[in-house]
Amino acid sequence: MSHRLQVLIPPELDAQLRKVAQRNRISKGELVRRVLQESVSKPAKGRTKSDPLARLESLGAPTSDIEGMLSEIDAGRR
């Protein structure tokens, strides 16, 4: 079951939300839900924005164990 949450925001923020939502072709409500979900998920991992591992993770780059990565790098040189 969903719950309604009413939050008052300034007109400038509302305009920004509208633009971002339109750009992503989603509703403002969906945008806010996604941002809130992302926000509450990050602290659960125990990492902050200043944490280098969290910043690296946010890049979404491919990862593997060191041997796998070195093999891929070496294969790319050939």
Describe this structure in words.
- The chain has 4 helices and no strands.
- With 78 residues, it is mainly alpha-helical.
- The chain folds into 2 domains: 35 residues; 32 residues, no CATH class.
- The N and C termini lie far apart (55 Å).
- Helix content is 64%, strand content 0%.
- Helix 1 packs across helix 2.
Which outline best applies? elongated
Low-confidence stretches: none
Largest sheet: none
Number of domains: 2
Helix tally equals 4
User: Helix share of residues?
Assistant: 55-70%
Rg is 19 Å
Beta-strand portion reads under 5%
Structural class from helices and strands? mainly alpha
Give the total of beta strands: 0
User: What is the straight-line distance between the termini?
Assistant: 55 Å
Mean pLDDT over the residues: 83
What order do the helices and strands follow?
A: HHHH
What is this entry, summarized?
With 78 residues, this protein is mostly helical. The chain contains 4 helices and no strands.
List keywords for this structure.
single chain, 78 residues, mainly alpha, elongated
Q: Strands, helices and their partners?
A:
Layout lengths: L10 H14 L3 H17 L7 H7 L7 H12 L1
